[in-house]
């Protein structure tokens, strides 16, 4: 029992430190409320253009890869909501490379808070909530219109899809940041898997080549963000013909990927050499 309390204490300390740093930046942001509102609205409008593109597409067609507008909106909303959560909470870790290059990471090493927490919470960008809210609105609209008989199990599956998707995106942010301990400038590589992956997951898997679908299922498990659980909700077969139980593995995959990201971060931090050494 004492050992379990000992393990829980660093977690509580990290969460508390994260919330304190975030609260500081939120207070700073809300000092200029008009500026914050403009940036948040601009952020929402910018991301909303992606869905406008989908709407324009469906003004000329009835289906895309066998999926109607509400079904594509479900894919868009679930992936964008998951990415919006991860980006809001952990997106700042992609700035790690700049800290490594200019030596400011050394300052975080001597502070009484986990380095990861400080990197993730530093300069917390509350304006990103605009992107998240826009995605939530689309997701809500889609959930109300897709032909799904909403049982308690399907409700849980939909909620787990968003939470697991956010965890997978957060793990990819972390893996990209860990790689920057050595590469020092790999943010664009990371973005190709996070923002690029989000752009792909907004469309049905049936419009992509099977080799690509296999890659984002077996290699980089982006398919578990929304493709597989969404296909289960919609009562559709996945293009790879996987067993039905695979559609429910989102939380398991998210836990495995997060564990791998944590190990990669720890290895990168242990191998870090200050710019002055």
TrEMBL record:
Superkingdom of source: Bacteria
UniProt entry keywords in alphabetical sequence: Membrane, Transmembrane, Transmembrane helix
Annotated signal sequence range: none
Keyword Acyltransferase: no
Residues that span the membrane, as ranges: 36-61, 73-91, 132-150, 156-183, 212-228, 248-269
Protein's name according to its UniProt entry: ABC transporter permease
Organism: Streptomyces olivaceiscleroticus
């Amino acid at each position: 029992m004492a050992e379990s309390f000992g393990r829980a204490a660093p977690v509580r300390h990290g969460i508390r430190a994260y919330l304190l740093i975030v609260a500081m930046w939120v207070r700073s942001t809300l000092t200029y409320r008009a500026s914050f509102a403009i940036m948040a609205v601009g952020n929402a409008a910018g991301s909303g253009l992606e869905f406008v593109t989908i709407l324009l597409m469906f003004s000329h067609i009835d289906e895309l890869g066998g999926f109607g507008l509400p079904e594509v909106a479900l894919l868009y909303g679930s992936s964008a909501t998951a990415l919006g959560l991860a980006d809001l909470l952990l997106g700042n870790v992609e700035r790690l490379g700049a800290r490594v290059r200019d030596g400011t990471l050394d300052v975080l090493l001597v502070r009484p808070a986990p380095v990861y927490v400080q990197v993730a919470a530093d300069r917390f960008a509350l304006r990103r909530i605009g992107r998240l809210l826009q995605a939530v609105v689309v997701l809500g609209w889609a959930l109300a219109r897709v032909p799904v008989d909403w049982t308690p199990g399907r409700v849980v599956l939909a909620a787990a899809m968003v939470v697991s998707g956010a965890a997978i995106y957060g793990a990819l942010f972390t893996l990209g940041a860990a790689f920057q301990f050595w590469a020092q400038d790999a943010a664009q590589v990371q973005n190709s898997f996070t923002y690029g992956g989000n752009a792909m997951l907004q469309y049905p898997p049936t419009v992509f080549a099977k080799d690509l679908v296999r890659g984002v299922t077996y290699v980089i498990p982006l398919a578990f963000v929304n493709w597989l659980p969404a296909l289960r909700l919609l009562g559709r077969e996945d293009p790879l013909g996987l067993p039905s139980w695979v559609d429910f593995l989102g939380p398991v995959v998210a836990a495995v990927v997060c564990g791998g990201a944590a190990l990669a971060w720890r290895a990168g931090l242990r191998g870090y050499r200050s710019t002055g050494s």
